[in-house]
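Hi R.,

Here's the chain you asked about this morning:
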Amino acid sequence: MTGSGAAPGSLADVERAAREALSPDVWDFVAGGSGGELTLAANRTALDRIALVPRALTGCTAASPGCTVLGEPWPMPAAVAPMAYQRLLHPEGEVAAARAAAATGVTYVISTMSSTPLDRITATGARTWFQLYWLRERARTADLVHRAEQAGCRALVLTVDVPVMGRRLRDARNGFALPGSVTAALLGDGPDSATAHTPDGTGSAVARHTSAVFDPGLGWQDIAWLRGITSLPLALKGVLSPDDARRAADAGVDLLVVSNHGGRQLDGAISSADALPAVTAAVAGRLPVLLDSGVRDGTDVLRALALGASGVLLGRPVLWGLAADGEAGVRTVLDQVRDELEHAMLLAGCPTPAHAPGLARRATEGL
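And the predicted structure, written out as tokens:
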């Protein structure tokens, strides 16, 4: 795929090109999950169990995948998920991915663990949200929030499912460490900055760095504090429990992301697709809900919409495109997902995302 700009037959082709382009340890960092990777596999199995029930004789001659999320128009119900250290995959890293997002009108969520400074990413012209990890030093957390505001990010996405990093055995076996050219660019040169680059023979250097900088004590009281220091819309990413979803809505959170971190945190956790219906029912339309983890194509986006989500976050497929062909590769992925979604909607007799709820059945359910 590299340099060709040609559309692949499927995103599986992009995945194969990415695997060929990356070293085995970086591929494992991208592709791997935690523990025995049960939840990683369950994310895919759960989506594959969702059968779409097309509606016939609808008179639908065209499908329009555009929608509105947090008051802003999206060309399709999908955004780029926050993902760390994108310069591991391509020299331009986050900048290349954000340029592709800008070209397609897709919102790009910047990770706290970005390997590129904020201003270089927002200078691409992409619509950006900022994903926040809770740091041990509250002043550093507040500084990140204020820098995101000043850089023009439109929303704040607090990840709530990483009190500690999951046991990512592929990385531990590889003794995975960042090369010197790739850093956590937003965290500066604190005393912990060298940890991620220093293998010590005991496991993942990246995991040790995470343990050094993330605060495991994040609680509901901190949501109130966070709301008090920013006027940005606030999303919580990593919600799987209906009770947590109700509490978030009661706390004035603006959006939820149903996510198990792509199978990279608690192994054995419920799949995101299985958790989604109960979460959407719990909030009963009080706030939008996005699905993250396991989404691989446009049909998966329609499945998420049919289960009641307002949209999805696209994770690993974007990284595949970045590794395979930089900005052009990411644009190929985003364009293809939109084309696949539009085609699936038309075949399902679904003219807009608002018509999708109710199209889904579990494969074992009747009609």
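The chain has one domain: 11-362.

Let me know if you need anything else.
M.
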